Amino acid sequence: MSLTLYLLIVGLVAAERLAELVTARRHTAWSLARGGREYGRGHYPAMVALHTALLVGCAVEPWAAGRPFVPALGWAALTLAGAAQALRWWCIATLGPRWNTRVLVVPGLPLVAAGPYRLLRHPNYVAVAVEGLALPLVHTAWLTALGFTVLNLALLRVRIGCEEAALTDGGRLRAPASVPSAGSAAGSAAGAAS
Predict the structure, then answer these.
(1) CB distance 116 to 123 below 8 Å
(2) How far apart are CA 77 and CA 67, in angstroms?
């Protein structure tokens, strides 16, 4: 795969991030109109910066460091990056207007226990982690993949802790009795520029 084609793929992912931001803005209005409350504003700028840095690193490292396309690694990484996108949009479709790049909780709504949330508590963060590792490795940008992965793990500890606290704030939200490990009703980090 040529570097030009890879940069086009990175550009398409950036465009997808903009689509997420438009979706999140619409969903924010929906949540706030229903009494939604935002949690974790403090870590949101760091999340935006990290996801922006991922895309910049994907574009700059292969060019600046002369990273080659290694077919066995590159095609496998591209497949994983595509699967991560599919999982992310499955999360968005499942949560509907409750999905967001911010942590917004509408009081009284039950946790979502459908789609990927039947299987994982935070499937969107699985998508973020896989994509953050795989997308740079399509063109062997291993420094970007490593840097994003390490920083993302630290950020996810904060983000998931924030979501869990938001979901149990005052005992207002509870998992459905039949699904003890149901997914989050709060917004996922999807990748709002992240």
Answers:
(1) yes
(2) 15
Residues 1, 72: Cα–Cα separation, whole Å: 11
Q: DSSP letter at 120?
A: -
pLDDT of residue 191: 33
161, two tokens: 């802790």
Structure tokens at 125: 């963060």
pTM of the model: 0.83
**Tokens at 132, concatenated:** 């953050």
**Going by C-beta distance under 8 Å and a sequence separation of 6 or more, which residues neighbour residue 74?**
1, 137, 138, 139, 140
Residue 115 has pLDDT above 80, yes or no: yes
In angstroms and rounded to an integer, the radius of gyration of the C-alpha atoms of the chain is 17
User: Please, where are the H alpha helices in 34-70?
Assistant: 44-64
Tokens standing for residue 46: 């760091």
What confidence score (pLDDT) does residue 123 get? 95
Q: Is 55 exposed, middle or buried (0-12, 13-18, 19+ CB in 10 A)?
A: buried
